Amino acid sequence: MGNTKDYAWEVVQFHGTESAVMDDEIASEWPLTVMLNGDEFATMVCSPTDLDDLLIGFLAAEGMIRSYDEVISISVDEYKGFAYITVRNELETMHQDHSKRFIGSCCGKSRQFYLKNDAKTAKTVYSSISISVEQCYVLMEELQCQSEQFMRTGGVHNAALAEPDGVFTVRTDIGRHNALDKIYGHMLRNRIPVKNKLIVFSGRLSSEVVLKIAKIGAGIILSKSAPTDLALRLANDLRLTVIGFARGSKMNVYTHPHRIVEAQKNN
After folding, report:
1. Among residues 2, 96, 231, 254, which one has the fewest Cβ atoms lying within 10 Å of its Cβ?
2. Is 248 annotated as a binding residue?
3. Model's pTM, two decimal places?
4. What tens digit of pLDDT does each residue of 124-140 get?
5. How confident is the model at residue 112 (pLDDT cuts 50, 70, 90)?
6. Are 25 and 152 in contact (CB under 8 A)?
7. What are the residue ranges spanned by the domains of the chain?
8. Is 80 annotated for ligand binding?
């Protein structure tokens, strides 16, 4: 859906002090307004690919739906940049909760940072997935090799749904949150079980990213980038294994290392 092509832009490229005029491929940035049950719900800026996945994943992550079966219809007006979605749920209460902060009294102190809809949808992860360090290195390399748009433009984030033995679904977007929503939407639309799944990711591990992974239910997030302190506190509370700075033959395991085979041997 939408304009899936990147743009060619004329640039002056320098090598040292020598210059040449050439065309450079630029990642497409596309505003999309979501109309939910006839009301304007949100406007997101995204890459115009895999939009059905993006929309379903976004609504699930925001607590508007729990399964794909709750969606009655979905259509996208590519020319105007509008998505029209009808769901079975009554949305008045959901709209009221959408941006309210939630102060929790349970478990970890970091849960006070949840928005109210996050508290309803970001559940503690009990995945029993187990992965070796070498498998982590291989998965990150697979993500890099399958990221053709990043290699062309350098302007997008990539997320993959994977099992320890390999990557099998990759989604790309200019927004790292959108890339994760596309993965979530793909899982819901195709009824893919989360058991023994992990997410391989190119972006920084913020608190929002950790919450999205918890909503998906995957036990491990593997990224080449760095986490934030709040992300790690949330991940620790939610029993999510966070692996960052996975580059080459190095990586850092920040939370719940019991899912790493080599860490199990050391205990």
Report:
1. 96
2. yes
3. 0.85
4. 898 999 999 999 999 99
5. very low
6. yes
7. 30-113, 133-265
8. no
Structure tokens at 90: 């009554």
Task: Report in angstroms the alpha-carbon separations of 154 from 19, 29, 138.
Answer: 20, 13, 21
CATH fold for domain 30-113: Ubiquitin-like (UB roll) (3.10.20)
247 annotated ligand binder = yes
How many CB atoms within 10 Å of residue 120? Answer: 15
The DSSP bridge partners found for residue 22 are 11
Q: Are 84 and 77 in contact (CB under 8 A)?
A: yes
pLDDT computed for residue 127 by the predictor: 92
Degrees to nearest 5, angle at CA 207 with 204 and 212: 90
73 is in an annotated binding site: no
Rounded Cα distance between 56 and 188, Å, is 8
Catalytic residue positions, numbered? 107
CATH superfamily entry for domain 133-265: Cytidine Deaminase, domain 2 (3.40.140.10)
pLDDT of residue 146: 78
Report whether 246 belongs to an annotated binding site.
yes
Q: Are 221 and 241 a contacting pair, CB within 8 Å?
A: yes
